[in-house]
Specification:
- With 228 residues, this protein is α+β, with helices and mostly antiparallel strands.
- The protein has one domain: 2,3-Dihydroxybiphenyl 1,2-Dioxygenase, domain 1 (Roll).
- The protein has four helices and 16 strands.
- It has an eight-stranded mixed β-sheet. It has an eight-stranded mixed β-sheet with strand order 6-7-8-5-9-12-11-10.
- The chain is globular.
Length: 228
């Protein structure tokens, strides 16, 4: 049995309303601007939600977590405020969002109304990371070594509004807090710790969730399941 269920995504932003508008249009979600400066993107289920949270730190290094999206053409995302990084080296296109965060675009002839394809995470050991997260969330693990890198992934995660959680090997270590993370629901914090997760912060008077890290230090938040 999985230890947790997928809840939603979170994205850090210096200007949450601006970045939220970009991602809402890119992914096919609705934008809610909040009075505190944060934003939320909403879709057909609660799991489609993406919280865009204001932080003071700008992007300074390559993101270890990024989103892959489907689109009809690169120009569709450039018109929304994306900029080009690399259009030639891979089967996909590498871009940056308006705050400099990396994203990858996969060209499809007829994009659907909702366009988040997968969530991609840099890893030291992509096999171990995929197996760990499959144990936490459920799903099936796959793996591939090819000319564009070595990858493992989890597909069929119950409730996740994207096809794959992908881990790819990179040489550089993690140095800063991830600007993209996911939230879970679980009543088994001890079980997560027993499997190798770490606790960064427990619930207190300010937050009602537990901030944790996976075995490679990627942050995620765990909420107690809603009553009923």
């Amino acid at each position: 049995m999985p230890l947790a269920t997928y809840k939603d995504l979170c994205v850090d932003a210096v200007d949450a309303h601006r970045l939220g508008a970009f991602w809402a249009a890119a992914l096919g979600l609705e934008l809610e601007r909040h009075d505190d400066g944060d934003a939320r993107l909403v879709g057909p289920t609660p799991q489609h939600a993406i919280w865009v949270n204001t932080v003071p730190e700008p992007v300074t290094v390559k993101q270890r977590v990024h989103l892959d999206v489907n689109a009809g053409a690169v120009d569709d995302l450039l018109a929304l405020g994306a900029t080009v990084v690399d259009l030639e080296s891979f089967p996909w296109r590498v871009l940056r969002d308006p705050e400099g965060g990396e994203l990858c675009m996969f060209e499809v002839e007829e994009p659907s109304s909702y366009r988040l394809y997968e969530v991609v995470v840099d890893a030291v050991d992509h096999h171990a990371q995929a197996a760990w997260w499959a144990g936490v969330l459920g799903g099936t693990v796959g793996s591939k070594d090819g000319p564009n890198g070595a990858w493992s992934w989890v597909e069929g995660i119950p409730g996740a509004p994207f096809g794959y959680l992908v881990f790819g090997t990179v040489p550089e270590p993690k140095t800063v807090k991830n600007r993209i993370h996911w939230d879970l629901e679980s009543s088994d914090i001890p079980g997560l710790v027993a499997q190798g997760a770490g606790i960064l912060r427990e619930p207190d008077d300010v937050i009602r969730w537990t901030i944790m890290v996976d075995p490679e230090g990627n942050e995620f938040c765990v909420f107690a399941p809603e009553p009923g």
